[in-house]
Amino acid sequence: MIAKPKPVEAIDFLPPGARAPIHPTGWVYDICYRMRDEQTTCPAYAAPSSDFGGVRLALKKGDLLKVRLVNKLPAQDKAKVSHYWNLSLPSVPDPHGINLPLTPLNLHTHGLVVEARAPSPRNPTWGDNIYVDLYNPQNGRPLPQPHQHGAVVDGGVLDYEIDIPRNEPSGADWYHPHVHGVTADSLSSGLAGIISIGGVNDYLGGGSKWGFSFPESQVRHLTLKDMQVLAAGAIQFAQGTANVTLPVSNGEVLNDQQDPAFCTQLPGAGEIRRGSCPGADNTSSGDNNYTGGRWYFPVSGTVFPTIEVNRPGGEIWRISNIGASATYKLRIQDNRGAYPIVVQLIAVDGVSIHVPAGTSQGDEVTLGGARFTVVPCPVKTPLGFKADPICVKDFVMMPGARAEVWVTYRDRDGRIATPPGGGATATFQTVGITTGASGVGDPWPAVDLAEVRFGRGNVSNGLVALDLLGDALAANRPQGIFFEKVPYARPAPPPQNCAPLPEGFRRRIFFGLVDTSNPNVFGLGYEILDRSGAVVPNSSLPVTAFDTSNPFICLPLGAGQTPVREVWEIVNLATENHNFHIHQTKFRAIQPNAANSPLSPTLDPRIGAGVMEDNVPLQITTFRTPAIRDAVMNTQNGYCTIGQWRSGDCLMKPQIVDIPFAE
Predict the structure, then answer these.
(1) What is the DSSP-derived secondary structure letter of residue 231?
(2) Fold of the CATH domain 306-468
(3) How far apart are CA 575 and CA 248, in angstroms?
């Protein structure tokens, strides 16, 4: 797996006044089978794959994924790498980030419940451990720095061995670099691919009137990436609290500081956005002038492709947002009837759902983290089904999110139907979404992503819904990955002050600013709650920036090296959405007082978790009075303090999640 620069042939960028289009340079993985242990290149006969849309690694449960990662990425202009600067001071180099312009690299398998293993004398390879930086020796040797996030490998080659558990949930995950400080650069340039585990028939029970498995040939893997391409001119680059204006060239990719205002959020009169939108002039608001540039939104590496859905029973779409920053609100809009075509939700973040019959629509919304606009299914729990089908008309995908939906032609009322007149067209689109209050939240644009054609072959065939026996149930029952002994865990004395939470206790985490007068320094607050919900004395910590000397919440596994479950209460002090994400596990939304449902704080293995996910958008803070709103928005950069939240001046219902830790 060779990370390298490559022109993006799918993007034809025509700068102002130019006669010929430019293919901007992105970053891709050149992937081939390795014939020898020492091999570091892909020979021509090996037919390497290096698709900008992202190569798919199709894996099975129980596989051993062996990867030799080779860094051939270029060095970057340090003035344009904003994380090179200390964001609390204007234009002061950050001593902890002096090597980031050398573009270090590593590998993270996002969504897999696998071991975050470091090398040992017995096995010198790496597991899914993000605390290692691999440097391209052609860019120069890294310098000593005060704090280094893990090991330094400067030879350009790193070997990984990642064991896929035999009870890993089947579904859609992905891979990308995860070096702190330059992850956004890598993703904005396109350095990401997807992983599939198993097949859809691992969790489908067939369906009404279908006596056979769902064809894997009708499973479509769709990747969402985006690229902001600049026209020649000058752009302000953030250096701490200051901005420095630097020249940019035609076709240069704005990869480190993607700007959600690159385009206007909605198209102008008569403007048609097929896979891209034009750069906007934002100088009146103190931002950049992107005129002449263009923001591209390829689907699986193609700008505005045509997707043919022309088989009985439709298709299952595995959709992955593997970009750096963009948030999508997705729907399939019928072109003739101008209505969103309803789809059935199959899986979230790589785990197939299992929502028990009788779950209310409100609870279904809560289970999905309020990401999905849930609508009644035309047929509610067909006879013999093991769980409720969940129907949605649109859904939000923040970076890293995955969703699996069953797509077939439906009429305005959501009923499955044969396309009228032998065929129908629709538009797969993101309708534009602002992730927070005006002036604080990011205004992500509306763009048509693909044309969808439902042909006469897409007949209903008597199928009304797909029956699920989801891994949200199976993973939490005996033999499930969140129930059984952790296969690589070995008994050992816990570190000092590492103890399990007492029964019924939970942790509370605050997302906020260290100092509300400084919008550039973020942090987390922390405390422990007892069974009654009261704060445990001496457990509270204020919102504090990442402490390199103490980056851990320590907890031991359960008896017999089994997973341990904890309840966390996440409080967002911001007037913009934050995306809560966690590695090497999943979690489920719960409610404190729920009982006998997937929302119960105590997991009933007969019911299952309903929906499990590994990222969820935290809802924004609102205000008790207009005066408090004005104070927070005008003098606190849109962030409340913990004290204002406790007093009820700032209102935010915490996101409560149950997390099984198996690492």
Answers:
(1) P
(2) Immunoglobulin-like (2.60.40)
(3) 33
